[in-house]
Amino acid sequence: MSFERACAADEVREDQPLGVTVDDMEIAVARQGEEFFAIQDLCSHAEVALSEGDVEDCTIECWLHGSRFDLRTGKPTGLPATEPVATFPVEVRTDGVYVDVTTTLNGVSPS
Fold first, then answer.
1. What does pLDDT average to over the chain?
2. What does the pLDDT average to over 28-52?
3. What is this structure's pTM?
4. Which of 5, 44, 45, 71 would be a feasible disulfide site paired with 37, CB 3.0-4.6 Å?
């Protein structure tokens, strides 16, 4: 695995994802409690940034049409999206949140 630093942990608010670029890949880093998630920052329905939406109950909402995606699996949990988005391994270290964009957790190839 090839982890790259994405951001500082305190930059990620619990209810608001943070859009970052890791190795030229647009990623939304989200937080639920003390757990961090990394998901491709592109809605599979409307191709808008998921990092501009809200995080609630381990899902991220697309601000444009309201599709929701599970942060753990990338699967849509609410229409109109029907296709999953890529999710990535995350490590929280003392100096920040690290993401491996070379490996997807759910087998979905990033666009």
1. 95
2. 95
3. 0.94
4. 71
